[in-house]
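cron nightly-structures :: item 1 of 1
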Amino acid sequence: MRTPPISCAMEETAYKLDARDRPRLLIAMMHALTAEESKISFEGDLSHTHLAQIEGVGREETGVLKRATLWPKLDFLVMPLTPMNISRIEEAIVSKIAFSHGGIIHVHIEQKGKIAFAAYDNFQSVVAYPAVPVALLQDLTERRVLRGYLPSTRNAAKSP
């Protein structure tokens, strides 16, 4: 049984996720966090995917979407997270190549200028920030996309 985390005005609750199905988790997060002001970044060996061909893609870091690995320098792509782009991203990442060793290593989703979701080291370290509804995490656990999730409180004044 999960106990709801306690939070106050100066803290925000984030959740550490234990990913069972990486592609389905990413697709669920993209659908949940799609908005006019949302962007997604991918980092890794992206040459085997078609991510670079998606409309609106850029290769430069943005305000909160930064490279997670400085050396060796990996492919880095940022694109708007729109309903139209989601299906294109799904097609580009669903293959086993995209999530195999050396494929997609880090993913960030930004919503309204804040990190909403982050996956590092081939989804070994995954965090959902307050923009992700707890009901979604419960649903993903029931559907066996997640093994589970744990609250992790951080100070709102600190960056993610």
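cron nightly-structures :: done
Helices lie at 22-33, 83-93, 96-99, 134-142.
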